[in-house]
Amino acid sequence: MTGPRFPRRRRFVVAVCMAAPALLMSIALSLLPAPASASASAETAESGGTIVYEGGMQLSSSDGFTVDVTARLTVECANDASCTALVVITGGDFVASPTNDQALPFAAGRASADLPYYGDICQLRFIGAGAVTVDATPDVAIVTRQSAPVSTSCPDGSTATASAATVSGTLSYVSGASCLSDGTCPTPTPTPTLTPTETASPMPTTATIEPAVATEARDWDDPGVLSTLRPFRSIGTPSAALWSVTGAIVLSILIALPTVLLDATSERVTERAEQRRRARGLAPADPSARPPLTVLGWPAALAGLLVAATASTYVDPEFAFDAAGWRTAAGIDAGFLVVIALGWAVVTAVMRSIRPQWRPRIEFRPLTLLFVITAVAFSIVSGFQPGVVFGLVAGVGFAGSISERARAGSALMLAGFMVVTGAAAWAGYSLLVPVFDNPDLLQLLALECLAAITIAGFSALPIALLPLRGLLGRAVWQWSRLVWVGLYAIAVGAFLFVLIPLPDSWQWVELDYLAWGIGYAVYCVVAVIAWAVSARGAGSSATT
User: Structure pTM?
Assistant: First the structure.
């Protein structure tokens, strides 16, 4: 008996798959800024801490000229409680740093200074002399800079002038210890230095157990992890879109390589199972029968969705059973119901109206809860905020005979529903964020529900569209590989643009490049081993 002969195309895919981690590492190292490492995080914590705000600002001149830009405020505090505030422009033209790229003294939630002209008006990046004020709260920061009229001669002989203007905007909290903005962070108790003393005869002592310090419970109106979703105005720049498109293309190609092997493995296993059935004289599997490891009906699917929503609340690193924690849980529940449950209902109704004999039904797959746990663990370990949640624990199945094209159409319909719903929620969130400057409980609940719908719609698709049995991507992959690649690239691009805008947000990721490369290498190795084992089994069956 001889071993299996691997087709050249498969051997090429295996070789490329094994070399892909190095490709991923080189691309990441050349394009992305260094992520925050554990040692860097520790250093930041020891040096006092950092809080970051981001959002849009507008220059309004006295002659009616306006320019929209995006900005970032970084407040850094040292151990001696001295803080500084730095505002930089992250997107847009004409406007230079409102703080002249200087870190201004910051105390009691405020920084102010009178600054000179800065930049170069001839290069169309400047700001006139004037006063700047920064007022920060745990939720938002208001930045205002006055710009006096400017007139200067340029090297080409022309004269550049600009009228008096005001640059102002409200920036939203992104990350860091929010208590740094108003100086309410608890002062750490210094560790006493023990000086050993000689004793004539040591006496037995009774150990004293120090009581644990309770974490301060958050109130109903304290922002949670869902509030860290960025509105469109803070990330909607051409550079962010270009990074998202580039990242989507690279990731889609890298994911597709081992997927080819996993698909071949699945096909061999399915074909072998059918051969065994025929060898036993059994009839082919009835399409109306309940699939293995599946529970039919809405009650089981909704129960699984509730379990997934409960587990997903732990994407909040500060989650606790306090008022803010219950509000976060309510927001995620609302997001799953609108994006997932409503999507099931819409797809089921549409497919039944097209052809009733397809007999669409809801199929709950308990093993998909492993993807829920994986998504939560990924959010915690990587440090991605506002996190990755996965709620597609069930799908639309069919009790009647249905073509691959129609089955793929139902998957595409559900994926499209998730994208459209998530995009509409993000648009509403982006419109309401500047309106609700200091939101009350109801306004905050509305914002976080919209954020949860956005996150549920965009974060689940990169997982749901993997061509694995029980996921949406399986039907699309079996129908058309080309359509799958395009759809997966769109899903990854939307995920990167909305939830993890590059390259700016990468510096807050706690995993380094080695960890990402190892994770992808493990995925490739599992795909290669599974494919090789199934191929050897197929070869053995053929020679028996």
Answer: 0.59
